[in-house]
Amino acid sequence: MLQINPETVTPDSLRTDIEKHLKFSLGKDAAHASLYDWRIALSLTLRDRVVEPWFASTRQTYEGKHKRVYYLSMEFLIGRLIEDVIINLDLEENARVAMNALGQDYHAVVADEPDAALGNGGLGRLAACFMDSLSTLAIPAYGYGIRYEHGLFEQHFENGQQMESAEAWLEQRHVWEFERPEVAYPIHFGGHVRTENGQASWEPGETVVASAHDTPTVGWQGKWANTLRLWAAKPAALFDLESFNRGDYIGASVAESLARTISRVLYPDDTTEVGKELRLKQEYFFTAASLQDILRRFLSEGHALATLPDHVAIQLNDTHPAIAGPELVRLLVDVHSLEMEPAIELARATLNYTNHTLLPEALERWSEGLFSRILPRHYQIIQHIEAAHFERVGTQVRIIEDGNVKMGELAFIMASHVNGVSALHSDLVKETVFADLNALYPGRILNQTNGVTPRRWLHACNPALRRVITDTIGTGWQDDLERLSELEPNLDDTGFLDAYDTAKRSNKQRLAQWLKAEHGMSLNTDAMFDVQIKRIHEYKRQHLNILETIALWNDIRANPDGDWTPRVKIFGGKAAPGYVLAKSIIRLINDVAKTLNQDPVTRDLLQVVYPENYNVSMAELLIPASDLSEQISTAGKEASGTGNMKLSLNGSPTIGTLDGANVEIRDHVGEENFFLFGLTASEVEARRAEHAYARNAIKYSPRLSMALEQIAAGEFSGGDKTRYQDVLTNLYDHDYFLVTCDFDSYFDAQRRVDAAYRDQRGWTRKAATNTARMGWFSSDRTIRGYAEEIWNAPSVR
Ligand code: GPU
Fold first, then answer.
1. ipTM higher than the 0.90 cut
2. Is 733 exposed, middle or buried (0-12, 13-18, 19+ CB in 10 A)?
3. 646 has catalytic annotation
4. 599 CA to middle of ligand 1, Å?
5. Does 409 contact ligand 1 (Cβ within 6 A)?
């Protein structure tokens, strides 16, 4: 294990290197340097200090012949990297001093970095937290994904409506990566399969090149660093001169444009299926490149192919890389001449699959026509996999059915272990989507409850609370988060609670200042900050929240001098551009905000704010400032949630349903520190079977009826009675997510929150208890679970 040389990290040495980079890497002198120049110079200075631990880790893995973990994911939602590196190398203070000495504002420099938004939401952010934990735990690992030229779109509001524009993070120099032009693999598509003497060979129609870009991911205290390897698509030959000479000017650039398209843009769909040819090509592109790279590294160490699972564990992040099964078989059979059956078994022993949703619309399936046109050889191999599976279990759960290739079934059958992401979700995976396969392969499905990295989601984003914790229990909790339980004896200590409260207040001030400066919004910082931040989706039920807001507004207006608890409702999140109803919900929130915030009678008691373009960096400001965490999905629909963990950890009790990881959070923090409401997963199923359940719920809830009538009357839409027809029809006639049925229970829970918040000391105690009891939700614990129960890949330490 490498120890960082203390001489390379003093403020003076940092300053010297920043000046050197400014001059020699950027060609600027201090007098003419922009904020951007300073940021790049600081980043390069920091990056230099990651290289040694990175080399040392790689060397140690090779020398010790350690098993490697490969995490294949379409998304890595890493956000800004500068602070990650500063924190993990413990350089915060020295970097600040160095920048000050250079006349620069450290915070402004850090905030200049664009977010790397290479993901949509929870699934992508989980992958980023896992990379942090793998490095902190010194488990040799590679993350493999796509180097999208454009990350998740930027969101703007026009008249309250979501508008999207292309995100362009790579227009600025991406300093953290090292381009590896020598690491490049051909990736084929289309064509046909020729069979001669029983030997199949794939004669592809198109070829692009996958080119590697490596970002080191350094763990806590810089003791270990792994690699995030992202693939960019390049044309196989820059220009087809032969076509050009024949006069086929368009044909001459076809290969080039296909290549440029593949890694061009992240699909902006969260838990909904895409089903587009380009998406299939993206999935195959990065999976095939990663597997060639894995096999090359494995063979270079001189191992026999039969020992692959002893040295390699591959984790598939949802079904997006599920083509890894047939692709690995193809490499073993067509390239390395293994027989089909042992190749299937070897691939299966190496692969594992994580399921992240039960929503039927998210389960990937490809039409046989499309699939066999793009990947004809894989189509054949899947038929072999299906045959081997029938042979083994006798019954027929099919991979190819009704004209579709079903990626969930493929991933399951080709995995050693399948896991869900919370206890409830894993049980439901066994009982619902994979009930048949679970019976045929008992024991294959496991649970690994998600977690979050405490380095970014407490230490880095919440310095005020970090200090209170360290003053109370000392340091060391950052990589041993269960030590937060040592706060427990202080939960009745006035001095501790005062300090905790002061930290929360300063975080609320910090957020208010930022919202004022960046979004022109003014917040009452004495009010409760009630936060719902996540993708906009019917199952997450932002509309339940806004309906309750309208009902509360009505109650306050009816009795303005009542004993109200002032609140600011804060929303953040994007909708998939094609998700019409989610976009209506966004507009409704903005319309309600406009109406309420103008009401002189209520605006100090109830305010609604929805800053546009929610992203990781905004989350880092919102989460520490939150008082109440909204986790209000329809029970059975949220696989886990991870925002729920970040908010609770940062002292924001949850109002929520028994869904996903909420169940386990409530078990840990105690039911008195969690505001539970709503139907359970099994009650949801039963209620849906009842006749006219939504209309009945509306009829018997005067508050809900009134709120819906106000929307219908155009009260929030300048008299326009049709604007929210889609939302209303949905709730009256197709309320699949049971917003109407959970409304009263939610409204009552919110009033319990109001009462609890009025007891300020009692509330601070609840908030602090949440922090003290959330240690189990570190992604370090999650990764230990994967390492022991799935990968059999020990820490090198
Ligand atoms: N999730 Br599938 C996504 O963010 N995107 C997806 O495409 C799929 C799942 C989320 C789940 O909705 C969330 O409950 C979970 O916490 C997260 O994955 C990580 O497991």
1. yes
2. exposed
3. yes
4. 38
5. no
Q: Tell me the average pLDDT of the chain.
A: 96
356 catalytically annotated? yes
Q: Compute the distance from residue 446 Cα to the ligand 1 centre, in Å.
A: 17
Work out whether strand 178-189 and strand 141-146 pair parallel, antiparallel, or are unpaired.
unpaired
pLDDT tens sequence across 363-376 = 899 999 999 999 99
Cα 389 to Cα 410: distance, rounded to the nearest angstrom = 10
Query: Cα–Cα distance between 610 and 160 in angstroms, integer?
Result: 10
Domain 65-80+115-450+782-791 has CATH 3.40.50.2000: yes
| Token pair 């919440």 in the structure block, residue | 462
- What is the rounded CA–CA span in Å between residue 793 and residue 133? 14
The single residue of 459, 508, 574, 646 carrying the catalytic annotation is 646
Reference 655, options 585, 756, 731; nearest CA is 756
Enumerate the domain spans of the chain.
1-64+86-114, 65-80+115-450+782-791, 454-679+745-777
Tell me the DSSP string of 269-335. Answer: -SSS----HHHHHHHHHHHHHHHHHHHHHHHHTT--GGGHHHHEEEEEESSTTTTHHHHHHHIIIII
Joined together, the tokens standing for residue 456 give: 């970014």
- For residue 480, what are the contacts with CB-CB under 8 A and spacing of at least 6? none
- Tell me what pLDDT residue 1 has: 47
How far, in Å, are 39, 373, 448, 674, 782 from residue 76 at the CA level? 23, 29, 19, 31, 17
**Residue tagged active-site, from 217, 642, 654, 769:** 642
> How many angstroms does the Cα of residue 354 sit away from the middle of ligand 1?
10
Q: Across residues 759-779, what is the average pLDDT?
A: 99
> For the domain 454-679+745-777, what is the CATH code?
3.40.50.2000
Q: For atom 7 of ligand 1, which residue has the closest CA?
A: 271
pLDDT given for residue 635 in this prediction: 98
Counting Cα atoms < 13 Å in the Cβ hemisphere of 241 gives 1
Q: Which of 795, 792, 796 is nearest to 311 (CA)?
A: 792
What are the Cα distances from residue 538, in Å, to 675, 690, 718? 21, 20, 25
What pLDDT does 252 receive? 60
pLDDT for 362: 84
- Locate the ligand 1 atom nearest the alpha carbon of residue 269 and give its number: 7
Question: Quick check: CB of 268 below 6 Å from ligand 1?
Answer: no
The pLDDT of residue 297 is 98
Cα–Cα distances in angstroms (integers) from residue 97 to residues 15, 94, 107, 466, in the given order: 9, 5, 12, 20
End-to-end CA distance of the chain: 8
Task: Using the atom order of ligand 1, give the atom closest to the CA of residue 639.
Answer: 14
Q: 642 CB less than 6 Å from ligand 1? A: yes
Global model pTM greater than 0.90: yes
User: For tokens 């120099």, what's the residue?
Assistant: 173
pLDDT at 395: 77
Mapping DSSP onto H, E and C, the string for 576-609 reads CCCCHHHHHHHHHHHHHHHHHHCCCCCCCCEEEE
Half-sphere exposure of 577 (CA within 13 A, CB side): 13
- C-alpha to C-alpha distance for 292 and 211, rounded to whole angstroms: 12
Q: Distance between CA 582 and CA 576 in Å, rounded?
A: 8
- Whether the pLDDT of residue 360 is over 60: the answer is yes
Query: Please, which residues bridge with residue 68 across strands?
Result: 312
Q: Which helix (H) or strand (E) holds 671?
A: none
Report pLDDT digits (tens) over 624-647: 999 999 999 999 999 999 999 999
285: Cα separation from own chain's centroid: 21
Of 783, 88, 777, nearest to 452 (Cα)? 777
CA distance readout (Å), 452 to 35, 89, 326: 31, 19, 32
Same fold for the domain at 65-80+115-450+782-791 and the one at 454-679+745-777? yes
Between the CA of 358 and the centroid of ligand 1 the distance, in Å, is: 10
Three-class secondary structure assignment of 704-718? HHHHHHHHHCCCCCC
